[in-house]
Amino acid sequence: MMPVQVPKGLVLATLFLAVIALATCSMILGYTGISWQDVTGAFSAFDGSREHIVVLEMRFPRAVLATLVGASLGVAGLFMQGLTRNPLASPCIFGINAGASLAIVVATAFFGVTSHEFFALFAMVGAAATACVVYFLGMSTGNLTPLNLTLAGVAVNAFLASITSGILVFNESVLDEVLFWLSGSIEGRRLDLVVSMIPVMVAGWLVAFLLAKSMNAQALGDDIAKSLGQKTVRVKLAACLVVVSLAGISVAMAGPIGFAGLIAPHFARALLGLDYRWLIPGSMFIGASLLLSADVLARFIVWPQEVPVGVAMSLIGAPFFIAYARRSLTT
């Protein structure tokens, strides 16, 4: 009996509704009891009550940030896996997050930077520099294989993380400022700050959508892509720009959150196939859903205290990573 093919449009619509539902849960669930009526009332008839203030000043910006960062990490992970042809590629595995984090710690420790706008700039520079280092290290053997790239990424990730730790050890004031952020946190971000970062993320998403057909051709290999008239170098550079900008801005806003960029593309391919025109929005919705789920989970792991969302995301992502690695080793 043939399996029933679910229309891809219906799959995307379901994923979008899941994001809306999880964002609503993010605004309702937590230490302060919030009802559905409180959420709707905060937007339609704000009365200055404690519940309405919690929704508008704390829960809503947090839900928006989780959605934006999760979507951006999903697209960044998708493009990294496509560029490297490595199913384990992601900003956290390949050291992109570590490079962006180091750049922000250096900016804070040595230049006194405290603005998230400048954090974003330093993070993107750090992410770009790390991507170049990993690429050239992977090429050092003369054969750019997925294994070489993974080994280079893991090595660079560990090296940059040790430098970051060393800086923080000798700068306790900086440690106090960035310790919670380094664990991955979306708590306490103002709505105006979140909104100010939206143009960068939207620009990255738009470029990703414009590259969808080119990435489909690139997936067939460089030779076939060139035979189809594609400028492969330009496509790869543009795709790298998407990864660097989206991963960098995500680290600047929420710290180095792992696994979302690794998991989302795998689920998207399982549900939507291999066409990037479907994979990009699918990875966005799944990445957003993962981070929203992690944000809700973070509030209940050690109730009534909260843990950073990066810790909760690791609890979700680590079992997937182990299971995938085990399956790859046995096939």
Automatic annotation (TrEMBL):
Keywords: Cell membrane, Membrane, Transmembrane, Transmembrane helix, Transport. This is Iron ABC transporter. It is a multi-pass membrane protein. It is found in: Cell membrane. Its main location: membrane. One of its GO terms (cellular component) is plasma membrane. InterPro entries: ABC_BtuC-like, ABC_transptr_permease_BtuC. The keyword Cell membrane applies. GO terms for molecular function: transmembrane transporter activity. GO terms for biological process: siderophore-iron import into cell. The chain crosses the membrane at residues 60-80, 92-112, 118-137, 149-171, 191-212, 233-258, 278-300, 307-325. Belongs to the binding-protein-dependent transport system permease family. FecCD subfamily.
